[in-house]
Amino acid sequence: MDNPLAPGGVRLPPAVETVNLVRRFGDFTAVDHVNLRVERGQFFGFLGPNGAGKSTTIKMLTGLLAPTSGEIRVLDRDLAAEPLEVKRRIGVVPEDLNLFERLTGAEMLAFTGRMYGLARAEIAERASELLALMELDGEPKKLIVEYSHGMKKKLSLACALIHRPEVLFLDEPFEGVDAIASRTLKDLFSKLTARGVTVFLTSHVLEIVERLCTDIAIISGGRLVAAGPLDELRRGVTIDVEGQTSSVPLPLEDYFIQVIGGARTTGDDVLRWLG
Ligand SMILES: Nc1ncnc2c1ncn2[C@@H]1O[C@H](COP(=O)(O)OP(=O)(O)O)[C@@H](O)[C@H]1O
Ligand SMILES: [Mg+2]
After folding, report:
1. pTM of the complete model
2. Which domain holds residue 51?
3. How many domains does the chain divide into?
4. Which ligand 1 atom is nearest residue 25's CA?
5. From ligand 1's centre to the CA of 57, what distance in Å?
6. Cα(30) to centroid(ligand 1), Å
7. N or C: which end of the chain has fewer CB within 10 A?
């Protein structure tokens, strides 16, 4: 959805915008002058190989990590100046999930709901619906420490949703989640974007982004190498296969490898000792 209009016909400012965002760890630059723009209601995929800087970026966008330099605006507010106002209106599933492992799922949701100032009855209603949707309601006494990774991920997502965020940030949401739960999550995300929620997800799994996202950015070595509507990005690519150029839409995998540059293929001489 480009240039979304509010009911009065007023153009809404972007959901997320960064200007020259940089994060260094010592001498190492993990995120290098990244300029992102995510419109309201977009299903945005932030794609890149392992170690590209996706998690570092999402941590900065959600106030979990301070940038070395650069600006971040979320929902038209300066994150550095108004972190609490921004945090009230966003939901986050961070890389490390951020759960209190000695609580049950329902307790964790209740704690999160109270943190956002929701009324007790509202928390109870939303928590039971979320737990049912995530199929986490089977063993109510189970502590989070006993959850599988996929269950923790789903609970973290439930916590990120309980206050009805306007922007949802998800760091590798499908990692470690089984096929059935993945389907539930995909349906849920699509429903949310249809209702105007902006979803910003990171993934190194191309097929997921290809199937779900309307708009993408690709980061590699801390730098943005491509950004825009998925269809346009692919249309803009011409491939040269054995002397024949073609401009058919590329499978995202081919596009990804093309813009990242240099697919590492395993030739016959590699790992010969494996037999
Ligand atoms: N706290 C940290 N200290 C030092 N280096 C870090 C730290 N966090 C991330 N990095 C480095 O920054 C780079 C990007 O990491 P990350 O953002 O987690 O990548 P991605 O999520 O795309 O896989 C990697 O090289 C990683 O080792
Ligand atoms: Mg990561």
Report:
1. 0.88
2. 16-274
3. 1
4. 4
5. 9
6. 6
7. C
